[in-house]
Amino acid sequence: MTRAGTSAAAISTDFLDGYATLLSEVSATGRLPRRPELDAMRDLGERAAEAGHGLRELVGLFLGETRRVWGTLPGVARAAGAAERARTGDAVLGAVDAAIAALGEGHERAQRLSVRQEEAARREFVDDLLYGRSDLGRLAERAERFGLRLAHEHAVAVAEGEEPFDDVHPLARRVERELVGRFGDRDVLITTKEGRLICVGASSEGAVLDAFAACARRPDAGRPAASRVAIGRPHSGAGGVVRSYEEALSALDLAGQLQLAEPVLRAAELLVFPVLLRDRAAMADLVRTVLGPLTQARGGAGPLLETLTACAAAGYVNAEAARRLQVSVRTLSYRLDRIKFLTGYDPSDGLQRYSLETAAMGARLLGWPDKPL
């Protein structure tokens, strides 16, 4: 038999220094291990973990040493009868138990510290990645550690829900488990930021972000899921991740302002809105000119603006628009007539309808009529 058994062959016997002496003294006197001795065992367990040795490997080493020296322990060797041998054996086994427990505490302490350091490094990397605050060359090197190759194109998806998400939220853990199980941990990063769940995925794996959106929105065992997911466009490099992330956030903001019902938004499909808002003064002038007269209607401009939005969403099918507004088709027709009368723009005319729809979108983006232009 080897000194530590086959399971501990890779671990140095230097970790055993003083252990045989401890067992010898315990067997001779029956005393318990002293605090400094247990503290030394905790330090040994911590050093073993830092050296990359598993707890099972470490325990195997010490149990193997216990078996090796058992017959040579003075208290065991000179015991006169079975009762005395049992008392001595109990004392030694108690010391072994305390020593193993102390080794385990030290090993777990080192593991917890390592996990905290890894989490801190990961959080710092995520912050630098999403905000672009680090040197791009250094950021690319750090990204390799977390499975991202920033030379490739990546896109970012952002999910939000009724409650904030953090790294230990059940949804975040489930989404990461399912996506890594399906696509592996290369070029897929699941994290959280400011209460939102985020996925960074290589654009070559287009299905990653679609799978993220589906998984994030799927309830599990009654737990809340994400209510909306926005996906930015793919871009290359570390700066591309920042840009895609900002596009996804902007899509979520636009969805809130425009009260969009779609659960999955793609920044590529919403590019018209930044164009519309690029000249806010011109957009405000369009809203005032086209929709300003609606303020003269009974009840204000709000109901008629809502009517325009519902008609556009329903493809100007009056029955469907009336259903969405929860009004009769007759009431809907009356409102459309009022819009035509007050603004001079006819919703049934293609060009004039476009002006009304564009102005209505601008009104929602600018918060009109609740906010003055």
From TrEMBL:
| Coiled-coil intervals, chain numbering | none
This chain's source organism reads: Streptomyces kasugaensis
Identify this protein by name: PucR family transcriptional regulator
Question: Which family does the UniProt entry place this protein in?
Answer: Belongs to the CdaR family.
Domain (PucR C-terminal helix-turn-helix): residue spans on this chain:
304-359
Q: Where in the numbering of this chain does the CdaR GGDEF-like domain appear?
A: 132-254
- Residues crossing the lipid bilayer are none
Q: Which InterPro entries match?
A: CdaR-like_regulators (IPR051448), CdaR_GGDEF (IPR041522), PucR_C-HTH_dom (IPR025736), PucR_C-HTH_sf (IPR042070)
